[in-house]
Design a protein that fits this description.
This protein is α/β, with parallel strands linked by helices. 27% of the residues lie in helices and 36% in strands. The chain has five helices and eleven strands.
Length: 205
């Protein structure tokens, strides 16, 4: 059934997934583990492409941000995020928005987290917006990175998950051109790709 609800338990966090929302997988676990140990003290976090809301909810549960804006364009993802927040008594600290993020004001947040769609599309058009990041795989990463660069205060943190299939050199070029200094904090080799977890700091203009 399209709206069948799935529940996942990650430590002290309940995660709800319905329908076509992206379900937690190896990439989710890689960035989730990093966020579990994050000791940031942000006022506002943005979870770009929130899916189930697991990343922003983890940040809120940690106390690494006082509030979080969750962005997605899939209806099932937005509803999954709402249910995840409700299941963890975090609804009052989260704002779930159906948007690609163009409304974000410049220099308005201190933390951005994202596990974006990063796989190359199978054809010339994207068919699965939850997993396919564009014809070459890095187009959504580039779009999110531009938004993060604008929205973050100098010194703000951008935590990004990407894949070798996204084009490693291209992703690094995008991050550098958008004003970030980055380091790979973790990676995971799978059969057909390598996943990378990047910690990126917004440079002064």
């Amino acid at each position: 059934m399209k709206n069948h609800e799935l529940l996942y338990i990650f430590d002290d966090l309940v995660v709800v997934a319905i329908g076509d929302a992206y379900k937690p997988a190896e990439d989710t676990w890689l960035i989730y583990t990093y966020l579990t140990d994050l000791r940031a003290r942000a006022h506002t976090c943005v979870d770009m492409g929130s899916g189930t809301g697991i990343l922003g909810a983890r940040v809120l549960k940690n106390g690494s941000a006082k509030r979080c804006v969750f962005l997605d364009v899939l209806g099932d993802a937005l509803e999954s995020t709402r249910r995840t927040l409700a299941a963890n008594n975090l609804s009052s600290r989260g704002l779930v928005v159906s948007s690609d993020g163009d409304f974000l004001r410049e220099r308005s947040v201190e933390l951005v987290v994202s596990n974006p769609p990063y796989l190359p599309a199978h054809g010339r058009m994207v068919e699965d917006v939850a997993t396919e990041g564009g014809p070459r795989g890095h187009e959504t990463i580039e779009f999110f990175t531009r938004l993060a660069s604008s929205a973050l205060h100098p010194g703000g943190l951008y935590v990004l998950l990407y894949s070798s299939l996204s084009g490693e050199e291209e992703v690094r070029r995008i991050l550098q051109e958008k004003g970030f200094t980055c380091s790979v904090k973790n990676y995971k080799k799978l059969f057909f790709e390598t996943l990378y977890l990047a910690e990126c700091v917004r440079n002064e203009d």
